[in-house]
Amino acid sequence: MSNSPAFPRSCDILVFGGSGDLALHKLLPALYHLHREQRLPADTRIFALARSTRALDDYLALAERHCRAQVSRDDFTLADWQSFAARIDYLAMDAAQSADFGRLRERLKHSETRVLVHYLATAPNLFTPIAQNLKLAGLAGPEARIVLEKPLGHSLESARAINLAIGQVFDESRVFRIDHYLGKETVQNLMALRFANTLFEPLWRSAYVDHVQISVNETLGVENRGAYYDHAGAMRDMVQNHLLQLLCLVAMEVPVHFDAESVRNEKLKILQALRPIGGQDVQDKTVRGQYSAGHIGGQEVPAYWFEKQVDNDSDTETFVAVRADIDNWRWAGVPFYLRTGKRMAKKCSEIVIQFKPVPHNLIGDGSGPANRLWIRLQPEERISLQLMAKMPGKGMQLEAVELDLNLAQAFSKNKRRWDAYERLLLDVIEGDSTLFMRRDEVEAAWRWVDPILAGWREHYQRPRPYPAGSNGPEQAQSLLELAGREWYS
Ligand code: BG6
């Protein structure tokens, strides 16, 4: 993995789905930052491709509005925007029509000495036709890379079909399956924490760890993405990718090298060791919920089924909690509790490693909590270690205190923290796939998720309601309480 690369090669970036949410909210602001900080190859060109016919100036006005909203005031200047906008072109085309790719090739006048990045910020059903059309148009040569957004498919079968079709056009080293969580600084820090410190690794196993919690809770609802989300739900949108990737980084063995193949080999082994959840286990080990009306930050918000483009009798889950077990030597008997929900009480993504209590209690009454490591990914990037200390004063009374590291403050000299997409876009241009999901990883994740989805269909129950602004359905609390545990946030 590279740090601050200098690029020898020029680059053309094609964004399919160029007027969609992802392109406007994430990709263009990330590219703007890269441009402003001179981290893009000097003559990089960006082509936004979308169905609507509109003049370039209209597209640029739309893009500028979104960039202004996403980029902090200090970082947005008109001069930078104008020089960035000079790199952008817009082409109206239908990605399913091969004839339109001829027009694209004409417009692009791509030279084979340039890196060509095809970023598919579209629905997965367009991945295969786009790849095939790129091949027909001669835009899939050795210099070309394809970037696929998650979720890749809808099930193992559909993911395999996509992987197969993409593999017929692009060899695996040129396929970049994005999970933007892997691009987050704090997520990469997890690897630094584990593999660059001697302190934790000896304790990182079933002999010392009681259980692990991985939560990604959001206060947002589905915003403008109801049409997509209502067909996906939290299991496909979040658990199949972001949460399982976090689980892999927490649970994997130390890779032989810090390169794409070694890291991904270890993650794959964890996905393969996940105990399948099917039959009765689906009832006992998973909870699916859906938000009803409630309050977020003092504001009333509607129930999920009143969101735009959502079926008014929808039974899509907006919350999932799962107990996952990893059947290998290191983690035997250590549950990993995964939880994600929209419209929750507070936004927070965090990993908690709950250590076991001391084997013999010498001090105190034996009821004090054991050590706990919190790795907070967002909104603040912090790592805290809960230790037991003696309370000041007479006697030996124990209290839990925290060793607290705020990563943003620790690195404040290093200016702005990069957004995940900045990092990942640079890696694509450089051809570094360490932070991207390999084909077998994606398929192994679906292999674990599919039986849960099937179990939900088989023993049908509507998702458990939870009021917006709460901590999810009660059943999610019971999932831990039955084992004498509790969620820590
Ligand atoms: C996306 C999901 O992948 O991640 C969204 O599709 C979710 O539904 C988002 O809101 C969360 O990302 P972040 O970076 O805001 O935690």
From TrEMBL:
Pathway: Carbohydrate degradation; pentose phosphate pathway; D-ribulose 5-phosphate from D-glucose 6-phosphate (oxidative stage): step 1/3. Residues 191-487 form the Glucose-6-phosphate dehydrogenase C-terminal domain. It comes from the Bacteria. Gene3D superfamilies: Dihydrodipicolinate Reductase, domain 2, NAD(P)-binding Rossmann-like Domain. PROSITE patterns: G6P_DEHYDROGENASE. One of its GO terms (cellular component) is cytosol. GO terms for molecular function: glucose-6-phosphate dehydrogenase activity; NADP binding. InterPro entries: G6P_DH, G6P_DH_AS, G6P_DH_C, G6P_DH_NAD-bd, NAD(P)-bd_dom_sf. It is an enzyme of class 1 (oxidoreductase). The active site is at H242 (proton acceptor). It catalyses: D-glucose 6-phosphate + NADP(+) = 6-phospho-D-glucono-1,5-lactone + NADPH + H(+). Transmembrane segments: none annotated. Keywords: Carbohydrate metabolism, Glucose metabolism, NADP, Oxidoreductase. NADP(+) binds at R51, K150. Residues 15-189 form the Glucose-6-phosphate dehydrogenase NAD-binding domain. One of its GO terms (biological process) is glucose metabolic process. Substrate binds at H180, K184, E218, D237, K342, K347. Its EC number is 1.1.1.49. HAMAP family: G6PD. Catalyzes the oxidation of glucose 6-phosphate to 6-phosphogluconolactone. Belongs to the glucose-6-phosphate dehydrogenase family. This is Glucose-6-phosphate 1-dehydrogenase. It comes from Pseudomonas panipatensis.
